[in-house]
């Protein structure tokens, strides 16, 4: 079951969701599942699910559907779930503190192993088991740990400045929670999550659904 073509970004974003749902099916003892069953749970139409899966070759069998255990193993490999990824957090305000308290290691293979905040001492302090250093230590501490992915929760006014520093030390990915549209070299991938935009989008869809219901 090999990837046969470039996977669209929209499909890639759904892969962790497929993996999570399939894990739940496996834990419940379910042996096989159809695209229609997945559609009911995920609220994604069955045709889209089949098209997403088709990018990875023949994952299912006609008349049978998909083997749950095989799919879990396959997506674990695709998502590198057997290899832990260490992440740095820059900005330990309200949102950053929530990341540290939750820490991703509890649910999958990604975990925050170091954080940076202007209020922290240069020699570092510990918060929920995570060492927190002053931002002056970013280059040294990140390079020492070989970290390639960063969560950015700093004030927007300093987001680009911090990003410029990260670009000089081999960072490959930034999960950006600021409202700044970051400028980065081609070697860095940025995913921006603007919570205010997401909330406005949610409200729009709610209002649109209400208008559609009134028209029906």
TrEMBL record:
GO terms for biological process: negative regulation of DNA-templated transcription; response to redox state. Keywords: Cytoplasm, DNA-binding, NAD, Repressor, Transcription, Transcription regulation. It is found in: Cytoplasm. Pfam families: CoA_binding (PF02629), Put_DNA-bind_N (PF06971). Residues 17-56 bind DNA. Residues 80-181 form the CoA-binding domain. Coiled coil: none annotated. Homodimer. Belongs to the transcriptional regulatory Rex family. This is Redox-sensing transcriptional repressor Rex. It comes from Savagea serpentis. The gene is rex.
């Amino acid at each position: 079951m090999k990837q046969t073509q470039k996977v669209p970004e929209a499909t890639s974003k759904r892969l962790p969701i497929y993996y999570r749902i399939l894990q739940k099916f496996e834990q419940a003892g379910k042996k096989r599942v159809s695209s229609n069953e997945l559609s009911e749970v995920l609220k994604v139409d069955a045709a889209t699910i089949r098209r997403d899966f088709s990018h990875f070759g023949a994952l299912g069998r006609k008349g049978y559907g998909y083997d749950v255990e095989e799919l879990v193993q396959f997506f674990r490999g695709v998502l590198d779930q057997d290899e832990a990824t260490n992440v740095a957090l820059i900005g330990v305000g309200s949102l950053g503190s929530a990341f540290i308290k939750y820490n991703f290691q509890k649910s999958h293979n990604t975990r925050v192993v170091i954080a940076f905040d202007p209020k922290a001492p240069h020699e570092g302090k510990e918060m929920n088991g995570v060492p927190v250093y002053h931002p002056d230590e970013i280059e040294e501490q990140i390079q020492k740990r070989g970290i390639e992915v960063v969560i950015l929760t700093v004030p927007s006014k300093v987001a680009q400045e911090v990003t410029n520093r990260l670009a000089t030390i081999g960072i490959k990915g930034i999960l950006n929670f600021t409202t700044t549209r970051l400028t980065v070299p081609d070697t860095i991938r940025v995913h921006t999550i603007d919570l205010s935009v997401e909330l406005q989008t949610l409200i729009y869809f709610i209002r649109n659904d209400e208008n559609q219901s009134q028209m029906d």
